[in-house]
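[job 4471] stage=fold_predict status=RUNNING
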Amino acid sequence: MKEMRKLKVLRGESALLQAVGSSRSRRHPMPAAFRACAVALAFAALWLAFDAAPLMAKRRKPPTSKTVIGQVFDASDNAIAGAAVEMKDLTTGKTTAIFTGPQGHFTFTDLSLTQDYQFSAHFKGQSSELRKVSSWDTRFKYVINLHIPPPKD
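[job 4471] inference complete, writing structure tokens
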């Protein structure tokens, strides 16, 4: 220990480091431009890791309307093409009708979340049961299958 103190006093700190075996005095200092670039890269990596991740994620907006899809069947569970499906807005009383496609499918889109609706199907003088969609129901997509009874003789 006394020898080390003597070396420090006699030769200065760099001599002590050489005596202990450190390579600190032999290193070349890092250029200032290289150091600035490393610091900038470190900040960019931190920004990407913590701040940009929420910006890059897609934000899902809650749906603003309801969709009702379904199919019209006869008494034997065969799809009925060309049946008329009526939708009545129970708040305004407005009725809208569409025809089913080749497989008996129908779709009503962009229905208000705050309105109540009533659905029924008609084909060759026969009508299906009435089905309702309530504004209290929180689903955004409904499947309503309507059954038309056989014609009365």
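[job 4471] summary: The chain has two domains: 2-56, 66-147.
[job 4471] exit 0
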